[in-house]
From TrEMBL:
Disordered: annotated span: 1-23
UniProt xrefs under SUPFAM superfamilies: Winged helix' DNA-binding domain
Record has rRNA processing as a keyword: no
Keyword terms, alphabetized: DNA-binding, Transcription, Transcription regulation
MF terms (GO), sorted A to Z: DNA binding; DNA-binding transcription factor activity
CDD domains: HTH_ARSR
Domain (HTH arsR-type) ranges: 19-114
InterPro entries linked to this entry: ArsR-like_HTH, HTH_ArsR_DNA-bd_dom, HTH_MetalResp_TranReg, WH-like_DNA-bd_sf, WH_DNA-bd_sf
Entry-linked PANTHER family: REGULATORY PROTEIN ARSR, TRANSCRIPTIONAL REGULATOR, ARSR FAMILY
Superkingdom classification of source: Bacteria
Name of the molecule in the record: ArsR family transcriptional regulator
Length: 197
């Protein structure tokens, strides 16, 4: 059964304007939306505890995310009028960089967001290394960090991207909800042409 506190399956927001991209291009806001998407709804106090940020800082960042439609209140979870719960409004965020190449303001906002996302991946991967000693060996063995390269035509490049998207979509659909014997498993893929190659 789907958790009513989580965004609907396959719900997404596609960004076109620089304002929301700039709003999301902040490490704390990106982390907050990630927590709400993966762990479900939370109060500002709960988010402050998870991130180590002050409640005032988290409240400011949550308000900014709400202003741009990334999060929304979940009033049905409040135990009284003072308690405010927040949830992610969408399961994923996407944007098409090619769409912004001829617009300097939108391209700068897109680049800032992409840099923040890549920096968050780096921090998360380093945190995995730090936590590895506490994991059971059978959960470490299937882990993988690798890279590769191949000389591809444009069509083959598109096919590779589509193949990886299909793998991602298969496992995302299968593992959306927690179940007995499961653990949250993360994956990150990057496919890009080498410049000058």
């Amino acid at each position: 059964m789907t958790d009513p506190g989580r965004p609907p399956a396959d719900s997404s927001v596609h960004l076109h304007d620089p304002g929301p991209m700039r709003a999301m291009a902040h490490p704390t806001r990106l982390r907050l939306i990630g927590i709400l998407r993966m762990d479900g709804p939370a109060t500002v106090g709960m988010l402050a505890e998870q991130t180590g940020e002050s409640a005032g800082s988290v409240s400011y960042h949550v308000s900014t995310l709400a202003k741009h439609g990334f999060v929304e209140e979940a009033p049905e979870l409040a135990r009284d009028r003072r308690e405010r719960w927040w949830r992610a409004a969408h399961e994923m965020t996407s944007w098409d960089t090619v769409e912004f190449l001829d617009d300097p303001a939108r391209h700068a906002a897109s680049e800032a967001l992409r840099r923040t996302v890549l920096e968050s991946y780096h921090r998360e991967l380093l945190a995995v290394l730090d936590a590895e000693a506490q994991l059971e060996p059978e959960w470490i063995a299937p882990s993988d960090s690798s890279d590769g390269a191949a000389h591809l035509t444009l069509e083959e490049f598109r096919e590779l991207s589509a193949d990886l998207a299909a793998v991602r979509d298969k496992w995302w659909a299968r593992g959306r909800e927690p179940a007995e014997g499961t653990r949250l498993v993360r994956w990150m893929t990057h496919v890009f042409p080498r410049s000058g190659a």
